[in-house]
Write a structure and sequence with these properties.
Strand content: under 5%
Helix content: over 70%
Order of helices and strands: HHHH
């Protein structure tokens, strides 16, 4: 059997998706309600300014800041590595010989594809650290920490979208080849 197996990839993708759903519909939705409808840092595609960060942290109050630290950041500590492993293995699996083309996909291309979810996960860890620092130092926010966190959020969203598009595109090619082989064999 080749590593990774399709079953392992499916399990990891499912676990990653479930964890994302728990975070998005649980803690992040709760923080949005606490803030009166403002969007939490993690899901602001255009980032946020120092003033917006201060306004959000003030709006969620002491209860919300404690809730952001735990459970949100605790759950979010597990997401980046699970994301990187699940997407990295999925991209590796999709580019194995015979999946999207008969010949092996060049190793450099495969490594470049895997670098995208690893970048996303690394930036997510940095973002989480910056958010934790903002929570711990409240009400004294560092403009630099807010800027790093905001930039990390923006690049996370871009690299995450790119990863998902790469996986979807490769999966479509693989499924088309699989279907064509079954029809013509």
């Amino acid at each position: 059997m080749q590593f990774p197996s399709g079953f392992l990839v499916a399990v990891l993708l499912t676990a990653s998706g479930l964890l994302w759903a728990v975070i998005f519909f649980g803690p992040l939705a709760h923080l949005s309600r606490l803030s009166g409808g403002m969007t939490p840092f993690d899901i602001r595609p255009w980032g946020y300014s120092y003033a917006e960060a201060r306004a959000f942290l003030e709006a969620i109050g002491a209860e919300g800041r404690a809730y952001y630290a735990s459970p949100e950041l605790i759950l979010d500590a597990f997401y980046p590595p699970l994301y990187a492993v699940s997407r990295g293995l999925a991209l590796w699996w999709l580019t194995m010989p015979g999946r999207i083309r008969k010949a092996p996909v060049p190793l450099k291309v495969r490594w470049a594809l895997i670098a995208v979810p690893i970048l996303m996960a690394t930036l997510d860890v940095i973002e989480n650290g910056c958010i934790a620092m903002m929570l711990w130092t409240w009400p004294h926010l560092s403009n630099g920490v807010v800027e790093i966190s905001s930039l990390a959020t923006q690049v996370i969203i871009i690299s995450g979208a790119l990863t998902e598009m790469l996986m979807a595109g490769l999966a479509v090619v693989w499924l088309a080849r699989l279907f064509a082989r079954r029809v013509y064999d």
